[in-house]
Amino acid sequence: MGEKLLEIKDLSVRYTTDGIISRAVNHVNLDLERGQVLGLVGETGAGKTTTALTILRLLPRYTSEVDGEVFFEGKDILKLSEKEVRDIRGQKISMIFQDPMTSLNPVYTVGEQIADVIRFHNEGMSKEDVQTRVDEMLKLVGIPPQRKTEYPHQFSGGMKQRVMIAIALACNPELLIADEPTTALDVTIQAQVIKMMRNLQKELNTSVIMITHDLGIVANFCDKVAIMYGGEIVESGTLEEVFDRSANHHPYTLGLFGSLPNITERTSRLTPITGLTPHPSELPEGCKFHPRCPQCMEICKTGDNPPKIGTDHVIQCHLYAEKEA
Amino acid sequence: MAEEKKNLLEVDHLKKYFDTPRGKLHAVDDVTFGIEEGKTLGVVGESGCGKSTLGRTILRLLSSTDGKIIFNGEDITNADSKRMLALRREMQIIFQDPFSSLDPKMTVSQIIEEPLKIHKLYKTKAEREARVKELMQIVGLDERYVMTYPHELDGGRRQRIGVARALALNPKFIICDEPVSALDVSIQAQILNLMMDLKDSMGLTYIFITHDLSVVKHISDDILVLYLGKMVEMTDSDTLFENPLHPYTKALLSAIPVPDASYKGKEAEVMKGEVTSPIEPPPGCRFAARCPKATERCFKDTPEFKEVEPNHFVACLLYE
Amino acid sequence: MSKTKAPRLKKNSQAAEVWQSLIHRPAALIALIGCGIILFLALFADLLVPYDVAIRQSGKIKLLAPMTTDIYGKLHLLGTDNLGRDLLARVIHGARTAMEIGLISSLISLVISTILACMCAMLGGWVDNVIMRIVDVISCVPGMVVALAICAALGNGIPQLLVALTISSLPLHVKMVRSVALTVAKKDFVESAVALGAKPWYIMVRHLVPNLASVILINGTAQVSINIMQGATLGFIGLGVKAPTPEWGTMLADGLSYTMKDQYMVYIPGIVLCLAALSINTLGDCLRDALDPQLKGKA
Predict the structure, then answer these.
(1) Which of C102, C119, C192, C279 could disulfide-link to C228, CB 3.0 to 4.6 Å?
(2) Which ipTM was obtained for this model?
(3) What is the pTM of this model?
(4) B84 to C197: CB separation less than 8 angstroms, yes or no
């Protein structure tokens, strides 16, 4: 158990637009070790993307406020200078985004875009060395190196996403943040891409934060899971702990599992969670999930946030506090 | 065995080709099936398989290239616009994207009311408004949203508006084109339940188009799998999942990530390659290039879609 | 089910929101006031100053500097021109002329181009081709040349000017509105209306046009100021408006010979033209800013 690669402590992010304050991330604590894969799960508006953008200091400067600390390899990223952060981006921490259709620049070849990030972080490298690395990366993601002279529009969605992964891994980063990388892809292509990511992750020992709403992908790829709702982590633990149906869980987690149409189980009617995810500018008092919780108690409606129970498998819920007491 | 129920919809060797500079694009290629009244047919396939084109061709939003469409015993393939106007009251469509399928300049009540106005169903405004409120209630939309605009509402509510609009004319048959794909998981479940309830209470017949096999299992009685415009497998819902025959169906099923920790690291047999082009496709099985079981014959002979087990149809040379 | 309020941002229709964002921007507010003044002068010119005052010539009071009282005891705020006509009166009535020229030609052009663009988007095929080729032909000839040709053929006068300006502003409008119309026509809600059995003309009016409102408004305001300037330019070279109709461009031309001594004859129409164009253009820009976030469709 070495030093933790990433430690997020009490992170809160607020957006202010048109005078309205959106509390996108609220007192989030996360950590990740080298070589670990964390699945960050939640629906739209839960705060997953904001958390990811905060790690890379990619939030809009004038409309966002950040509190808390984000330690990467022992240093607080939030306190680094612009130049130091730029050095980290693409080299130590990389990110891949959801929509491969728009993430690549259509006027440059794929090879040039991979070469760019290599050159940016390796100033003295010779042209031949850069090209060798480009070829290496393309082979790694299963694209014939001859195709490096082609333009993004000549590739399909799945291949574009592989190019994105090649760009992200070109400088062998310690941490890869993948924000719903396969949502826009067909399910068979998704399977190919996830398989490739898993192999690469093992080979390069990269840590990954996999942001997704698909619990199936989490089960396939992740070591740890953190479930987000209303900008908070309501449950976290190892994959086995969170997916263990016989254990205790946060009611939202149970709701998520219940909403899933599952091909291996026979259910005739789904059990969705009633109500809607609250907008970050209108979060409820007390426990943020209480309006939708089938097990809501009086104490949940007001006052402080529910306590976090447990040490490794942590659940933020009043239900288990009572039981513990 | 129940008496032979009449098929509400029959599609006979339907083809839809598009002209492109590089040749004809075979979007829908020789599709034949029938749906009994009150049943749901799930049409499944990945992007480019022709499922959306199929839906639109059946509804005559696109003109077919060949083949027949028979609705309630009547051949509507070439029905004129007057007949189609009347038919539109019985055949409707729910769209995929709740963000672009509603006119941003119209209020919720105007959107739901539009079909009533086009078909002049009620004489007075008050009657129309009453019907709109009724529809909103049926789909679970609170009355207070009557004067709101779509952009003020979330995806789930918008999709409910789409459903209400489709129901306004009391259709018998609705084509649901990926109605829950753009929604969050917990909202998906709500809308799916709503659609299943409506099916039962209003006796609707659905074609449910989706790429998500787990979703289609819940709502469909029968499932048709399409690949590059061709039918590859069709049987009832349970059988498809318990006993898939076509290699593509098997690959689709195994590609779905299962939310179960014991599946971690399990090497699913992953299909190689990407979808081949639907433009002027070469002879032989369209899936041959990616099929783990392809033989030389597969690239030459086109497999026939036939019944290999009771009510289980496959198009694969493996079963010939 | 929880009572989730819709986010406070958008309770009203788009028009109300646009108004709100306009009056909260200083630049837009000033531009609105400027345009408002011009419109007011145009509409109520006769009530403010009789038309007669603007055109009555009088040798005895010519070339009086601004803020001079003439021999009859009347104060001329902006002075008089070389024919003894009160410049303030001419500026006010010139506003009416400018609005007639600019606003009317733009309106006609917008109506025609919207109809043509919708036809292109809804009907496509050969209709689209024919309309676009006609538009291409018109756009080959520079606007000024078209105007010159028409005025030369049909003589001077406001109606002729209107025809010329309408024709020359068509191509830009048709192209811009058409490109947005094509995008709108592809949207699912149009297909949805087709699936209900709606006829093409119904769809054009009910679904296309309201969604084109933004681009029409933005283009329209830009075109108003362009046309006013075009009209002024034509007036400057002696075409378009017939004397003695007060028109800012002609007034500029009249003042040319007096740049040495009575510069106010050039400054006054010049500044008025600038301010008018500036107000209208700024309003157009602010409208674009106000409408654009909604054009992008906030979920």
Answers:
(1) C102
(2) 0.81
(3) 0.80
(4) yes
